[in-house]
């Protein structure tokens, strides 16, 4: 299981235990709103990654490119030795480059590097643009640079279909699992036009014609209760800090898990006990005998390791 290359606002890495329950026996993973592509990287199956944000798809195209990947990886690794002031200077150089080339949809390996710098070093992981389409999030004052980029990302993305465009351009085939993670309704700021009611109405019409299994995750909103049938709700905790003296580290919201078929979903916490319960469930699902007395002796990290190993084998 690979981790997403960059931090991404609204990323769904923490939702993988739920997504996995909907994606059983999938031959391909389809992410029409790819973003950080948490699902595709986790399952490591042939995937289709589509996004209207050129910065996202250009990044994945560069990582998949045999000629440019090595240089990109070297540049990313070199940045891990930079101090705070060097990171700040690099951040604003990268932001200027992204903004200067905002209207270009040409392949650009330098733009891919700059986008990694922005995603990893911007304040609070925000994805925000001003009225002129310029990325305007300030430097997050990080002391160190980190990035999950590894050679395995290159090998995986070489097997994927990468589309810069609308979700409606994706060709869905038999055996696909479609994970739909659009910008949340009425939450603007990703890119121009995101979060509008018209976008979500288009998604509604689009899903009516999808016969393969699909899952859409969204925050609690009446639009979805009024227009979709199979909905599961769950309280979801998140940690964010925006602005001076504003602490939302214990904030909670409700997520909606919407699909075209009923699924009895099990929710697991990220605690040691929650991971142990998840492992028990995966072992039973594989048709193996479960000894709960042994499972309860595992640390959280050990339980997570076995979850990842078994999940990969079961998929």
Give a short summary of the structure.
With 315 residues, the chain is of the alpha/beta class.
Total of domains: 2
Task: Give, in spatial order, the strands making up the sheet with the most strands.
Answer: 3-2-1-4-5-7-6
**Strand-residue proportion:** 5-15%
Radius of gyration: 20 Å
Helix count from the secondary structure assignment: 12
Written as H for each helix and E for each strand, in order along the chain, the element string is: HEHEHHHHHEEHEHEEHHH
User: What does the overall shape look like?
Assistant: globular
Number of strands: 7
CATH fold node name of the largest domain:
Adenine-specific Methyltransferase, domain 2
State mean pLDDT (0 to 100 scale): 88
Residue ranges: pLDDT <50 for 5 or more in a row?
238-248
Describe this structure in words.
By secondary structure, the chain is an alpha/beta fold. It has two domains: 247 residues, Adenine-specific Methyltransferase, Domain 2 (Adenine-specific Methyltransferase, domain 2); 43 residues. 39% of the residues lie in helices and 13% in strands. Strands 3-2-1-4-5-7-6 form a seven-stranded mixed β-sheet. α10 runs parallel beside α12. The radius of gyration is 20 Å and the shape is globular. About 3% of the residues have low confidence.
């Amino acid at each position: 299981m690979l981790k997403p290359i960059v931090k991404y606002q609204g990323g769904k890495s923490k939702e993988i235990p739920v997504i996995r329950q909907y994606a059983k026996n999938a031959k391909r993973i389809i992410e029409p709103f790819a973003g950080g592509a948490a699902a595709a990287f986790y399952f490591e199956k042939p995937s289709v990654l589509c996004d209207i944000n050129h910065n996202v798809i250009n990044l994945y195209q560069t990582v998949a490119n045999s000629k440019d990947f090595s240089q990109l990886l070297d540049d990313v690794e070199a940045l891990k030795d930079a101090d705070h002031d060097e990171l700040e200077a690099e951040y604003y150089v990268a932001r200027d480059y992204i903004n200067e080339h905002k209207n270009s949809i040409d392949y650009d390996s330098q733009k891919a590097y700059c986008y990694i710098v922005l995603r990893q070093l911007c304040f609070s992981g925000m994805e925000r643009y001003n009225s002129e389409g310029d990325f305007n999030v300030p430097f997050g004052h990080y002391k160190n640079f980190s990035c999950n980029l590894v050679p395995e990302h290159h090998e995986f993305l070489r097997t994927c279909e990468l589309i810069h465009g609308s979700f409606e351009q994706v060709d869905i085939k038999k055996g696909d699992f479609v994970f739909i993670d659009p910008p949340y309704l009425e939450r603007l700021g990703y890119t121009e036009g995101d979060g509008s009611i018209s976008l979500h109405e288009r998604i509604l019409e689009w899903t009516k014609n999808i016969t393969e299994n699909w899952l859409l995750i969204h925050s609690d909103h009446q639009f979805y209760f009024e227009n979709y049938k199979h909905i599961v709700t769950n309280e979801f905790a998140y940690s964010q800090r925006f602005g001076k003296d504003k602490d939302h580290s214990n904030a909670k919201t409700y997520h909606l898990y919407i699909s075209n078929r009923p699924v009895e979903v099990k929710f697991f916490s990220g605690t040691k006990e929650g991971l142990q319960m998840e492992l028990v469930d995966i072992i039973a699902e594989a048709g193996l005998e479960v000894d709960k007395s042994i499972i309860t002796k595992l640390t959280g990290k050990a339980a997570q390791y076995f979850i990842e190993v078994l999940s990969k084998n079961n998929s």
